[in-house]
C-alpha cells in the first residue's frame, strides 16, 4: 500500500459514508475475483482499510453485504416497471432490452458472474442466488402478470429463458450466442419472452425499441386504390404499416427521450404523469384516484403502483373522504409540487427540442393531420367493427 492510499484511508476515519463506499467497492472487487465463497469479511475489511466489525455494523451479514454490492440491477428493475406501467404488453421487450443492456455493459468488477459460478458448486451460494432471483425477478413479475393457474409456468419459463441467455452468451460464451449482435438478439429474445408470459407478440416491423425495420415493411399493397390528394395529383395510398410503423416508432422515441429527461429527477415517465396530473388540478393539488386515472395513460394497477412509490418518497399523500371512506384522494406534498413544476418545465423544454426540426407551418399541418387521424380511428371503433361483423354474419349462407 503506498503513502497516498494510507493518507486516503486515514482521512476516512470519521467519514462513515466514505467507509461504507470503500467496503462496497472492496466487496465488488473481491467477490468478482474470488467468488461469493472465496471472499471473506476479514479480507474485504482489510481491502477497504476498516475493521471487520465495522463491515458487520454496516451490513449485518455477508449475505447483506453481497446483496448491497450487486444491487437490484439484474432483476425486474424500476426502469422495466416504468416501461410497462402504461402498457403491460411491453414487458417482453422491456425485459429483453434491460437484461441485454445490463450484461453487455457489465463492469469487470461486477460480482454477479462470480455468484453464478459459485452457485454451480457451492450450496450456500446457490441458495443466495435463488433468494435474489425470487426477490428481484419472481415477485415483481407476479405483480405484473398476475396470479393464475399458469403463473408458475410463466415465471419458470421467463427465468429459464433469461438465465439460459446469460449462461450461453456471457458465462460460457458459446457460439453463436456470444457473437449475435444485440440489435438482432433483442427482438428475438422479446418474441420468446412474449410467448413465455402469454403476452401479444411484438408489433410486426418493429424492433425492441419500437423502431420500424425497413426490410420488413414490404411493398405497397396491390389493392391499395388511388386517392386524390389536396393538391390534385393521383397518388397510391401507402400500406397501413407504412403509416402506423413510423407512428409507433415516433411514439417509442418520444417515450425514450422523455424518460431520459425525467430520469435526471430520479423518477420515471409514469410517475411524472401522476405528479403532473395533480399539479394541473390547481391548489390544493389533489384529485381522486379515479380522476387521476382519467387523465393519465396508466392502468388501475399501474396507477396504484406509482401512487405507492410516490407516497413512500414523500411526494404525495393519500387522503380518505370524511363522508365516504371508499373515496381516496391523492395530494401533492410541498416537495411533490416543487418536483412536479421542475419536471414539467424540463419536459416542455425537451418537447420543444424534439420539434425543432419542424417549422411552425409543418407543426401546424402535423397537428391537423393527427386530428384527422384521431377522427378516423374513432370511426373505426368497436361499434363500427361490431356492425361490420353483424353484416358479414347476416350475409353468410346458412350452414356455410
Unreliable parts: 1-12, 199-233, 391-400
* H/E topology pattern: HHHHHHHHHHHEEHHEHHEEHHH
Q: What level of helicity do the residues show?
A: 55-70%
Strand content: under 5%
CA-based shape: globular
Label this structure with key terms.
single chain, 400 residues, mainly alpha, two-stranded antiparallel sheet, 5% strand, disordered C terminus
Written description of the protein model:
With 400 residues, this protein is mostly helical. Helices cover 64% and strands 5% of the residues. It has helices at 3-11, 16-38, 41-48, 52-59, 62-70, 78-84, 91-104, 112-119, 123-145, 151-171, 182-197, 240-263, 269-279, 289-293, 300-312, 334-354, 360-379, 382-395, and strands at 226-228, 234-236, 286-288, 316-320, 328-332. A 3-stranded antiparallel β-sheet has the order 3-5-4. Strand 4 (316-320) and strand 5 form a beta hairpin. The chain is globular, with a radius of gyration of 26 Å. It starts with a helix and ends in a 5-residue tail after the last helix.
Short description:
With 400 residues, this protein is mainly alpha-helical. The chain contains 18 helices and five strands.
Amino acid at each position: 500500500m503506498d503513502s497516498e492510499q494510507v493518507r486516503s484511508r486515514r482521512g476516512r476515519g470519521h467519514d462513515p459514508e466514505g467507509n461504507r463506499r470503500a467496503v462496497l467497492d472492496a466487496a465488488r472487487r473481491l467477490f468478482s475475483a474470488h467468488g461469493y465463497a472465496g471472499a471473506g469479511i476479514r479480507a474485504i475489511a482489510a481491502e477497504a482499510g476498516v475493521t471487520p466489525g465495522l463491515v458487520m455494523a454496516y451490513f449485518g451479514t455477508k449475505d447483506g453485504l453481497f446483496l448491497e454490492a450487486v444491487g437490484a440491477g439484474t432483476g425486474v428493475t424500476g426502469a422495466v416497471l416504468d416501461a410497462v406501467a402504461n402498457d403491460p404488453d411491453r414487458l417482453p421487450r422491456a425485459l429483453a432490452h434491460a437484461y441485454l443492456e445490463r450484461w453487455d455493459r457489465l463492469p469487470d468488477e461486477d460480482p454477479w458472474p462470480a455468484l453464478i459460478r459459485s452457485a454451480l458448486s457451492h450450496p450456500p451460494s446457490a441458495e443466495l442466488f435463488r433468494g435474489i432471483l425470487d426477490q428481484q425477478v419472481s415477485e415483481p413479475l407476479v405483480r405484473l402478470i398476475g396470479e393464475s393457474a399458469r403463473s408458475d409456468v410463466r415465471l419458470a419459463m421467463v427465468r429459464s429463458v433469461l438465465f439460459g441467455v446469460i449462461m450461453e452468451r456471457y458465462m460460457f460464451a458459446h457460439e453463436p450466442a456470444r457473437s449475435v449482435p444485440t440489435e438482432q438478439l433483442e427482438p428475438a429474445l422479446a418474441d420468446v419472452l412474449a410467448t413465455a408470459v402469454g403476452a401479444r407478440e411484438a408489433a410486426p416491423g418493429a424492433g425492441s425499441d419500437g423502431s420500424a425495420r425497413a426490410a420488413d415493411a414490404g411493398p405497397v399493397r396491390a389493392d391499395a386504390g388511388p386517392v386524390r390528394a389536396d393538391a390534385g395529383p393521383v397518388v397510391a395510398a401507402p400500406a397501413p404499416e407504412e403509416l402506423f410503423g413510423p407512428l409507433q416508432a415516433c411514439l417509442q422515441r418520444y417515450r425514450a427521450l422523455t424518460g431520459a429527461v425525467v430520469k435526471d429527477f430520479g423518477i420515471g415517465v409514469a410517475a411524472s404523469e401522476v405528479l403532473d396530473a395533480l399539479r394541473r388540478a390547481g391548489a390544493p393539488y389533489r384529485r381522486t384516484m379515479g380522476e387521476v386515472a382519467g387523465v393519465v395513460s396508466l392502468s388501475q394497477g399501474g396507477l396504484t403502483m406509482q401512487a405507492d412509490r410516490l407516497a413512500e418518497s414523500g411526494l404525495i399523500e393519500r387522503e380518505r373522504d370524511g363522508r365516504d371512506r371508499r373515496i381516496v384522494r391523492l395530494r401533492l406534498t410541498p416537495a411533490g409540487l416543487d418536483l412536479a413544476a421542475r419536471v414539467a418545465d424540463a419536459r416542455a423544454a425537451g418537447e420543444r427540442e424534439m420539434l425543432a426540426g419542424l417549422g411552425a407551418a409543418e407543426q401546424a399541418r402535423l397537428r391537423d393531420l393527427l386530428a384527422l387521424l384521431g377522427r378516423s380511428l374513432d370511426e373505426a371503433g368497436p361499434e363500427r367493427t361490431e356492425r361490420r361483423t353483424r353484416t358479414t354474419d347476416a350475409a353468410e349462407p346458412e350452414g356455410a
